[in-house]
Structures are given as C-alpha cells and as structure tokens.
Amino acid sequence: MLLYVTLGSNDISRAQGFYDAVMPVLGYRRQRESDEEIGYAADGDTRCRFWVVMPYNQRAATIGNGSMVALHAESRAAVDAFHAAALAHGGTDEGKPGLRSFHASFYAAYVRDPDGNKLSAVCERPE
After folding, report:
1. Beta bridge partners of 119
2. How confident is the model at residue 109 (pLDDT cuts 50, 70, 90)?
3. Is residue 96 part of a domain?
4. DSSP code for 37
5. Residue 77's domain spans which residues?
6. Helices (H) and strands (E) in the chain — how many of each?
7. Residue 62 domain-assigned?
8. What's the predicted TM-score (pTM) here?
9. Which positions ≥6 away from 108 have C-beta within 8 Å?
10. β-strand 118-123 against 69-72: which pairing, if any?
11. DSSP code for 76
C-alpha cells in the first residue's frame, strides 16, 4: 500500500548517525544521501522506502501527534536489537520490547529518534 515514508529532521548528520545504527538491524541500509535527505532500503529493492528529510519549505521539522512509523522485524531478537541501537544512538524509549495485546504474537518496541519522531519495530512471528 505505501510507496515510501518520510520523516522530518532538523539535523541530517545527527539523524544519519541514528538511522545508520538502527536500520541495519532490521535489514535496511542507507542507499541515498545528500545534504537535505537520507534514504534507506533493503538490498535489492528498486527504491528507498524510508526517507529522513529536511522539510522542503525550509521551516523547522516538527513531529506529528499520533503519528508513528512501524517497521517490520524478522525476529524478536531484531526488535530487541532495534530498541538497544536506538537508545545507544540518541533515541529515547517509548516502550520496551515485549508482547503487546494486539494479538498473541505481536512483539514490538517503541522509540523516538533524536528529532522526536516515533518509531516502532514489530515482529508478528510466534516464537
């Protein structure tokens, strides 16, 4: 359904340090970069599906109340690694890794990036 997602940043260098540490644990890596944006994708994907950008209108990036991007994780260990990498690279905890009530195998962790954008990593495989 989604072609790609963008999140705003006020400091692309800081965001790059965060996302370069967090995205590889989920199987994504930085594929594109410029002074205004960085793009991440899985190897072999034809395009970046996740972008962090300086706002086009050159105003300050702000977070959305109620907005969150949930990223697919192949395993519960990947969710754990995502959470640990995020906290080690300037992110803040919004919910430690664990099972959630959405269904019996919904294992997720929640963080905010250094700009305040909310992210989640989710594994729905039973283990």
Report:
1. 69, 111
2. very high
3. yes
4. E
5. 5-56+67-123
6. 2, 8
7. no
8. 0.94
9. 70, 79, 95, 97, 98, 100, 120, 121, 122, 123
10. parallel
11. H
Neighbours of 114 (CB within 10 A): 18
Provide the number of structural domains found in the chain: 1
In this structure, is residue 108 part of a structural domain?
yes
Cα 107 to Cα 2, 48, 61, 87, 117, distances in angstroms: 22, 25, 30, 18, 20
Angle at 102 between CA 80 and CA 42, to 5 degrees: 45
pLDDT of residue 1: 78
Residue 31's CATH number: 3.10.180.10
What is the overall mean pLDDT for the chain?
96
**Does residue 83 lie within any of the structural domains?**
yes
Residue 61: burial class (beta carbons within 10 Å; 0-12, 13-18, 19+)? middle
Q: Residues 39-67: what's their mean pLDDT? A: 95
**Residues 6 or more apart in contact with residue 58 via CB below 8 angstroms:** none
**pLDDT band, very low/low/confident/very high, at 2 (cuts 50, 70, 90):** confident
Nearest 10 degrees: Cα torsion 127, 112, 95, 29: 10
